[in-house]
């Protein structure tokens, strides 16, 4: 049973509400409060701790901004699935005598030619020019020759990039951080998909920004909803992923992109186009960076098809957006690793990157077909070459209940709450990262457990916590 004393509220120093928030956060992190647990009603907790209801309310709001809990109108405040560890169900025990399959992370399947990667690493290790680059802080945007190679890659993706508009960052997360920090100020509203990559919500909160959800459909953001959200919230920064949306797999057609570009121009929006999954598409429509070039920052990386451990991303930004992003990049990280940038550039110039992307597409297609066969009777949203799929929870399961039931079966997935922006009703779905297992044989075992769990109905009548 969770116990919090008055001493706990003052142990951390500072305001009482912050001490209460820290005590609850420690309980979540330590597993004493688990995903799906309901926090005490504010009045009851205030009475028990002899504090004001406002103090408890501020503590709960702070936990919500950190992404640790969620509020449901008329129902209360609940521990967010995925809040107590790096994986959504990290605190749950694996089933006795069985292995656990982690389908919670969108890592690429191990298809990149390992020998060629090793050759590139060895070649870089013997390059005196790189040794010189490592002795000094590199230019924030990157070395000129590396920027030229990266710009050529972006141009092949339809982005109107030149070396002078191209920059490297420490992974796509670093690029997103630089964009949000450089293009918005604390207190600003950032418009984004109602369901989106979970790192956006936490990053916006850390920077003092408010993430405003915009309605999506089978093609992503709805233009009319974007216009309404921009006018209602005053937000002028739009962040979206047109290619293989995470988590739903939605893919945006040309007409929808043109409509969004028109709305952005009319409402004066700056666009951040996150295209880390675009490399998984054999064919792709023109990016928003080509349709609205004066107002769009574009970013992508090699993480989803080559090597996520490189922690390198490439972005394009037109002036004066480029200056703002570079200034933020300098403040946040000073730059990036020129060694990682060199590995990526050599992979691009030597054909390894294209080879790895094609291999990843083929493997993703095979795994999606496998998932379609094994989960054929279920409500799935997916793209043919996506690393993940979106599984809708059958009645009466909630997303959190399904995630917990699957965890007890030995399959860890990402519950829909992890991707939710705003306080509306949580999505009744989970994301399965089918690229994560090292082989199709292991994926088969994992998906068979998913099918068995759903077929048995185990967990539908889980006891109240």
TrEMBL record:
Keyword annotations from UniProtKB, A to Z: Aminotransferase, DNA-binding, Pyridoxal phosphate, Transcription, Transcription regulation, Transferase
Keyword Metal-binding annotated: no
Chain ranges of the HTH gntR-type domain: 14-82
Pfam family membership, one: GntR
Gene3D superfamilies listed in its UniProt record: Aspartate Aminotransferase, domain 1, Type I PLP-dependent aspartate aminotransferase-like (Major domain), Winged helix-like DNA-binding domain superfamily/Winged helix DNA-binding domain
Molecular function GO terms recorded: DNA binding; DNA-binding transcription factor activity; pyridoxal phosphate binding; transaminase activity
SUPFAM superfamilies, A to Z: PLP-dependent transferases, Winged helix' DNA-binding domain
Matches recorded under InterPro entries: Aminotransferase_I/II_large, HTH_trans_reg/aminotransferase, PyrdxlP-dep_Trfase, PyrdxlP-dep_Trfase_major, PyrdxlP-dep_Trfase_small, Tscrpt_reg_HTH_GntR, WH-like_DNA-bd_sf, WH_DNA-bd_sf
Family assignment from sequence similarity: In the C-terminal section; belongs to the class-I pyridoxal-phosphate-dependent aminotransferase family.
Name by which UniProt lists this protein: PLP-dependent aminotransferase family protein
Organism from which the protein derives: Marinimicrococcus flavescens
């Amino acid at each position: 049973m969770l116990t919090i004393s008055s001493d706990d509220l003052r142990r951390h120093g500072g305001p009482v509400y912050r001490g209460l928030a820290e005590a609850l956060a420690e309980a979540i992190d330590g597993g004493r409060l688990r995903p799906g647990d309901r926090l005490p009603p504010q009045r009851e907790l205030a009475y028990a701790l002899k504090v004001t209801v406002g103090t408890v309310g501020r503590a709960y709001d702070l936990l919500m901004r950190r992404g640790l809990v969620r509020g449901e109108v008329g129902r209360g405040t609940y521990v967010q699935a995925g809040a107590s560890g790096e994986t959504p169900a990290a605190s749950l025990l694996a089933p006795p005598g069985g292995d656990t399959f982690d389908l919670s992370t969108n890592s690429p399947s191990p298809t990149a030619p390992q020998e060629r990667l090793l050759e590139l690493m060895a070649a870089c290790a013997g390059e005196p020019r790189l040794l010189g680059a490592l002795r000094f802080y590199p230019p924030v945007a990157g070395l000129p020759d590396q920027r030229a190679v990266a710009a050529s890659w972006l141009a092949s993706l339809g982005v109107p990039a030149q070396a002078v508009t191209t920059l490297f960052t420490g992974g796509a997360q670093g690029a997103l951080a630089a964009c949000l920090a450089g293009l918005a100020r604390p207190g600003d509203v950032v418009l984004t998909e109602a369901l989106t990559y979970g790192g956006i919500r936490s990053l916006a909160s850390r920077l003092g920004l408010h993430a405003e959800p915009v309605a999506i459909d089978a093609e992503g953001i709805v233009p009319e909803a974007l216009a309404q959200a921009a006018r209602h919230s005053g937000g002028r920064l739009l962040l979206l992923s047109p290619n293989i949306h995470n988590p739903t797999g939605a893919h945006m057609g040309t007409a929808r992109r043109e409509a969004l570009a028109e709305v952005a121009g009319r409402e004066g929006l700056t666009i951040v186009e996150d295209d880390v999954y675009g490399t998984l598409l054999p064919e792709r429509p023109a990016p928003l960076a080509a349709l609205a070039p004066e107002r769009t920052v574009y970013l992508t990386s090699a993480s989803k098809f080559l090597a996520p451990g490189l922690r390198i991303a490439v972005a394009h930004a037109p002036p004066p957006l480029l200056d703002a992003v570079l200034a933020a990049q300098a403040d946040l990280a000073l730059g990036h690793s020129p060694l990682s940038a060199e590995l990526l550039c050599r992979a691009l110039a030597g054909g390894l990157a294209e080879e790895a992307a094609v291999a990843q597409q083929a493997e993703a297609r095979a795994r999606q077909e496998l998932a379609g066969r094994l989960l054929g009777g279920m409500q799935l949203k997916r793209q043919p070459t996506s690393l993940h799929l979106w599984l809708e929870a059958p009645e009466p399961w909630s997303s959190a209940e399904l995630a917990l039931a699957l965890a007890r079966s030995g399959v860890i997935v990402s519950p829909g709450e992890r991707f939710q922006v705003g306080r509306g009703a949580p999505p009744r779905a989970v994301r399965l990262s089918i690229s994560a297992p090292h082989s199709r044989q292991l994926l088969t075992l994992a998906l068979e457990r998913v099918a068995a769990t759903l077929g048995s109905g185990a967990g539908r009548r889980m006891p109240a916590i």
